[in-house]
Design goal:
There is one protein chain. It contains five helices and four strands, in the order H-H-E-H-H-E-H-E-E. The chain has 191 residues and is of the alpha+beta class. It has a four-stranded antiparallel β-sheet. It has helices at 3-12, 28-38, 59-74, 82-93, 113-133; strands at 50-56, 97-104, 136-141, 159-169.
Length: 191
């Protein structure tokens, strides 16, 4: 791949929401490719802190039930919104797959936690770019109700969840609305 193709791929990367997903399912081979690419993210001292919980098929229903119930448990009565609860479930059930994005800290804690979170973020970017290259939609959401110790029941010892990635096959010809300011407004050259 040349730099122009890479630049084009990066610029086409978008958060694509489950409301634009079709009923078509992503193949297991494609999901495995996305996850394989995720694990090639940079990570200090090769801790490879990312952990992924992949929900598909009937497991999506269990996740939708959990997330809907978790919303009800964690939201104050004055902020409760029945439509939001339904949307939480619908996002999951509209997806081909939902991947819980988790981190397991280095047991020796040789590096700061933020570096392991940065490694997860880099892995997620690899997932986004893979989905873009495969013409698939994906969207990373970080609902506060599942972040933190013991907030998400699907974890192994020492793991924490930092969000969900919704994946699906999208309707064709989605408009691209991404805009970025000129990079010059964010760069200071120190000479």
């Amino acid at each position: 791949m040349d730099i122009h193709s890479l630049t084009d791929l990066i610029k086409r990367r978008r958060s694509i929401f489950p409301s634009t997903f079709t009923d078509e399912k992503i193949s297991q081979a494609d999901i495995e490719t996305i996850l394989e690419n995720a694990q090639w993210a940079p990570n200090h001292k090769n801790t490879e802190p990312w952990r992924f919980k992949v929900f598909t098929g009937s497991a999506l229903e269990g996740l939708a039930d959990f997330m809907s119930n978790r919303y009800t448990e964690t939201i104050s009565p004055e902020k409760y919104n029945e439509n939001k609860k339904k949307r939480i479930s619908k996002k999951i059930l509209s997806s081909s797959h939902v991947i819980a994005l988790c981190v397991r800290r280095d047991p020796e804690e040789r590096i700061p936690e933020w570096e392991e979170l940065a490694a997860l973020s880099c892995a997620v970017q690899n997932m986004y770019l893979s989905c873009t290259a495969m013409n698939l939609g994906c969207y990373w959401s970080s609902p506060g109700m599942i972040i933190g110790k013991n907030a998400f029941p699907y974890l192994e010892e020492g793991e924490r969840c930092y969000g969900l990635m919704y994946l699906g096959v999208t309707v064709p010809n989605l408009p691209s609305k991404a805009v970025r300011e000129d990079i010059k407004t964010k760069v200071a050259w120190v000479k």
